[in-house]
Design goal:
The structure holds two protein chains of two kinds. Chain A contains five helices and twelve strands. Chain A is an alpha+beta fold. In chain B, the strands form three sheets. In chain B, strands 1, 6, 9, 10 and 12 form a five-stranded antiparallel β-sheet that branches. Chain B is elongated. Classes of the chains: A alpha+beta, B alpha+beta. At the A-B interface, helix 1, helix 2, strand 1, helix 4 and helix 5 of A face helix 1, strand 2 and helix 3 of B.
Amino acid sequence: MTSTKRVLLAAVVAAASTAALSAQAPPASLRVKGTTARPKEFGTDAYTVTVIPAFSFTADRDTETDFGHLYKFFPLGILGWDAGHMFAGVDIPAGAIVDFIGLQGWDCGKHGTATLFNVAVTGMTGGIVSVESANQPPSCVVGSWYNPTALGWQLQQNVHNAMVADVYFEEGGTFDTEFTMAWVEVWWKRSVSPAPATPSFNDVPTTDGGFQYIEALAASGITGGCGGGKYCPEATLTRRQMTIFLAKALGLHWPN
Amino acid sequence: MPRTRSLRRLSWALVAAGWAGVALAQPVPRAVAHRKSAPRAAAQSEPKAYGVDTYTVTVIPATSFTSDDHYVTDYGSLARYFPFDDNHHHYFTGLSQIPSGAVIDKIGLECASTGNGELTATIFYVAEGGGATSGIVVLPNTPHDFDTDYSPDFLGYQFVKNVHNALVIDVDQAPNTEPLFGWVEVWWRRTVSPSPATPTFSDVPTTDAGYGWIEALAASQITGGCGNGKFCPDAPLTRRQMAIFLAKALGLHWPF
């Protein structure tokens, strides 16, 4: 990066504020929920935005860092910037649904592309979704790029073991064109596991309105039922039972 | 590629000046002036304590920090330091991600500094789109051999959605010293979100003792009420209903 580019970026950064992030954000109805979400949000409607900074990525050759060392890029070679990849693991809960991926970086007309891959026992499988920065040369912008519609892609244990984010850096010219990465965002939300085929309790058949949820609690070891192979779904919950459910569910309370 | 210290300082100063003009009402803390762009959260993945009075201690080891110059590792590569060299400050920069509304009550800094100078840890809030904000706590350690220094208890800094995006941690090694940096601790606890102005359910007015909590559950899509726009706050809870609440809240149960 030349000092000219640094000054350019300085101006962009100073002026960008929230505009750069909202320019290509997901639809407003979803974006609103997402921006209020933080790591490990609960419920099935709140997005957790897991942000993986550039310096958590490994690369297929030497890299350089810049801007407080939070950005990462491939160094200039003899003929310009060679294409390259950077990789990072994505750690989300089983059953989580990934709806958006975001790529934040500095695009000077050469693009970055973030792709999420499933990882199975046998190795990395096909990319499930890509998002590409899309600035036109010769300008440079600091921005975030997102896929436009919700993906609804689910991480299912025993099918996929994990996800890997792969950021591809497009080859750059000898002129000031390159892509510099800041971070990758993965927007996910929790879901309740599918109901099993066979009921655990003889008073909660598969047709019960709470079947899926009661099975989920039983499978988690939060409840063993009310005795005699029953769950007693219609029984009023006592405050004692409520306490036991919550303490078991959350693993309460180990003081610091 | 020409990357001189003087160039870096010049451009850093430009960015800092830009931030100061755009975003900062307060003077730029010294430790912020070296940072060029705003990071967001790191992908911190570890168990989180539940409840609103239990601290989660997020430990960010030196190995998770990035740095502004070449460093040396020691003690099984857990500790890091910059070699005694050139009359310059050197920085380790790390990121932390905590849930919306979490309150930070204590910061810890582990290092070994006997006879080798001291470290200073500063925690910053970062806002969306590129602005570093003021340091919320500065923690200089005192000379010792392998010990953790703590800020005063009950700092009460709240991580407010749409105001703060992430926490950035700067660890400053003074010129011509070689203290060993071990890790930074962030002690935080959860809170329940503030109540909205308008009730969601017709039978749970703003004056209801459970108003804020019921609204929090509805917003998380853990409950949709009992029909007809009501929540039925005084109705006894059945064990079936309890199961549905818990399974939705926690996203149960995806087996491994």
